[in-house]
Write a structure and sequence with these properties.
By secondary structure, the chain is an alpha+beta fold. The chain is built from 3 helices and 19 strands.
Amino acid sequence: MKKIIFIPIIITTVLLAVASCGKGKTTKSAATAAADSTAIAKVRVQQVEAREVEQTASFTTTVLPEAKNSIAPQTPGRIRRIFVEVGSRIAKGQRLVQMDAVQQNVLKTQVDNLQETFNRVEQLYNVGGASKQDLDNTRTALEVAQTNLKNTNENTYLLSPLTGVVTARNYDDGDLFNGQVPILTVMQINPVKLTINISESYFPQIKLGMTVDVNFDVLPNDKFSGKIGLVYPTIDPATRTFAADVKLANPAGKIRPGMFGRVFVNFGKQKRVLVPDRAVVSQQGSGVKFVYVVDGDKVHYTEVQIGNRIGNEYEILSGLTDGQTVVIAGQTKLQDGAQVQVIN
């Protein structure tokens, strides 16, 4: 009987001991959590200040030619010869293409015959052998033929309307021009044009002749300067932007249509609050920027609108004032109203 009683006593004792240990651990963990929740965060801070800074805005753009022309006759016909290739540099008035000259020869013969007829009628008119009506009719027929010949000449020998470069050739010698695509495409690339879309807030500040800086990714070692050549008079209601054209000299031909570029416009200096970039935190998922402003021994969540990055600082467009103190290190575990300890 003693053995039967002894075993339950041992089991009960062990269970009580285990329960006691578990209760102790639970109490200790709760105490630790409570202590952690009341811990004061240690942070580093810095006072912000307002300074005069350059107000520069950048705009991405694609290079366009100053002018672009399609070279083609008014009517279909046989191409006798093309005098240039893609990439050829051309001058204004240079002969580019020769079309079939059969029609030209026919019209030239017609003009010569009408000129002789007009000369005879004019002589007769001067001696009273022809009427004024005969003279006028002959003159009109000659002028119409001369106009037709001039038009045919222009469509037989195709000349360049600009100084530039050949950018496309769609036919070869002997091909029949069908009127669907031009024989050649030529572009004026000095100067070139860059169209930028600017926020409407800058509309009063953009003026004709303003100097701008331009960079190209493919020409990292070259710096270019252009001027505002055209400001479009209307604002797009969908994007709240307006367009402006930048004219950029290109005497060496380094800049080519289609290149990606960045235009930098300087709007002068303005006083802005500057904060270290370490102070600005991005809210995940929303893109909102904020800082923690120190007020006594507590911090307050403050949303800010940032402008340009200047070195290792951001200019603040709204949200902060000159002289406020912000947290620059230790923001990870902070929340609005948290108590902090400032350390050096």
